[in-house]
Write a structure and sequence with these properties.
The chain has about 325 residues and is an alpha+beta fold. A hairpin with a 6-residue loop joins strand 3 and strand 4. Helix 1 runs antiparallel to helix 4. It starts with a helix and ends in a 28-residue tail after the last strand.
C-alpha cells in the first residue's frame, strides 16, 4: 500500500469516526435541554447501526417539549401554568376556579365561568430553535456521498500509472542532425534566446487503441552534459498521466544537451521537471509531428522502463 493510499484511508477513517461523535454531541445537548435521559439516548444514537438510533431519538423526542420561560429561560412543561423559577404566567387561568385554560376558549370547561379577559398578562413559553439538526443531517448525508464520488474519481490515481516511461539525453547538434526537421530547428533557435531557468518543451501525443503515448523534447539551458536523470510516473486525482523527471545539479558544460522522454497511459501526460530538488517552470508547446523517441535500432539507447511513483494530485 503506497503512502497516498494510506493517507486516504486515514482521512476516510477519521471522517467515519467524526460523524458518530457529532451525532452523540447533538443528542446529548438536545436530550439534556428537553429533560430526557441524555446518557441513554446518546448511547442509543451512537451505537445503533446505520443511524437507526438517531432516527428513533428524533421520533421519540417529540413528546418531550423544548420549552423555555420567556422571562427567565427556565425549562418548562406544556402543562405548567406558571414558571417554577420566576412565577411568570405561562397559561391563562379561570378567574373562578384557577384551572389552566387554553387560548381561544370562551368558557372554562371545569366550572363554566366565562373567560373574557383571562388571557391578560399571559406570556406563553417559547420553543427553542433546533439549529444543530440541519447541520447533522447534512453531514450524515453529504459526507458519505462526497467520499464515494472522490473514491470513484480517484480510482485511477491509486491504481498506479499503468504504463512505462523512459528518458535519454544526447547533444543538441546530434539530435538536430538525426531529425533533420526545420520546425524543430526553428524552435531551438527561439529556445536558445529564452530564460536560463526555464525548460522549453515540445510535446507530441499519439493516440493508440489501448494506450496513449506522449513524447517530450526538453531543452533546459542549465542542463549539463550526460546528466543524471531520475524518472517516475504517476497519475493525478482524475487519472491524468504524469511524467516526473528529476535532474541532479552536477558540474559540467551547459546549454548543449537535449532530453527525450516518453510515457504511456490512459491520456495525454503532464510533465513535472525538477532540478536539484526545485521545480522548474516548463514552457510546453504541443506539436503534431514525431519528436524522435529513437529505438536501439537507430543508434541511440532507449531508456529503461521506470518504476511508478505514488500517485499525487496532478
Amino acid at each position: 500500500m503506497n503512502f497516498a493510499m494510506t493517507i486516504w484511508l486515514l482521512v476516510v477513517l477519521a471522517i467515519f469516526v467524526a460523524i458518530p461523535v457529532l451525532v452523540g454531541v447533538y443528542v446529548w445537548r438536545d436530550a439534556s435541554r428537553r429533560g430526557m435521559n441524555a446518557p441513554l439516548w446518546t448511547l442509543v444514537a451512537v451505537l445503533a447501526p446505520a443511524f437507526i438510533g438517531l432516527i428513533i431519538y428524533l421520533l421519540v423526542r417529540g413528546s418531550w417539549p423544548d420549552l423555555r420561560c420567556p422571562a427567565c429561560g427556565e425549562a418548562v412543561n406544556e402543562s405548567f401554568a406558571r414558571c417554577p423559577r420566576c412565577g411568570a404566567r405561562l397559561k391563562a387561568a379561570c378567574p373562578n376556579c384557577a384551572a389552566p385554560v387554553e387560548a381561544g376558549w370562551k368558557v372554562c370547561p371545569h366550572c363554566g365561568t366565562p373567560l373574557e379577559g383571562a388571557q391578560a398578562y399571559v406570556t406563553p413559553p417559547v420553543r427553542e430553535k433546533d439549529r444543530g439538526l440541519g447541520k447533522i443531517l447534512l453531514a450524515v448525508i453529504l459526507i458519505p456521498v462526497l467520499l464515494i464520488a472522490v473514491m470513484v474519481l480517484s480510482f485511477g490515481a491509486f491504481s498506479g500509472a499503468g504504463g512505462g516511461a523512459g528518458v535519454t539525453s544526447l547533444p543538441v547538434g546530434e539530435y538536430l542532425a538525426e531529425m533533420d526537421n526545420s520546425e524543430i530547428e526553428a524552435w531551438f533557435a527561439d529556445a536558445f534566446e529564452g530564460e536560463y531557468d526555464t525548460a522549453y518543451v515540445l510535446r507530441h501525443t499519439t493516440e493508440g487503441e489501448e494506450r496513449t503515448q506522449t513524447e517530450f523534447l526538453i531543452y533546459f539551458p542549465r542542463l549539463v552534459d550526460q546528466p543524471s536523470i531520475s524518472v517516475g510516473t504517476g497519475s493525478g486525482l482524475l487519472g491524468r498521466q504524469r511524467l516526473e523527471l528529476g535532474v541532479e545539479n552536477e558540474n559540467g558544460s551547459t546549454g548543449n544537451t537535449v532530453v527525450l522522454a516518453t510515457c504511456e497511459g490512459d491520456g495525454g501526460a503532464k510533465l513535472i521537471l525538477t532540478y536539484d530538488g526545485e521545480k522548474v517552470p516548463c514552457q510546453i508547446t504541443d506539436v503534431d509531428y514525431d519528436l524522435g523517441w529513437i529505438t536501439p535500432g537507430n543508434g541511440v539507447p532507449a531508456a529503461e522502463e521506470a518504476p511508478s511513483v505514488p500517485a499525487r494530485e496532478g
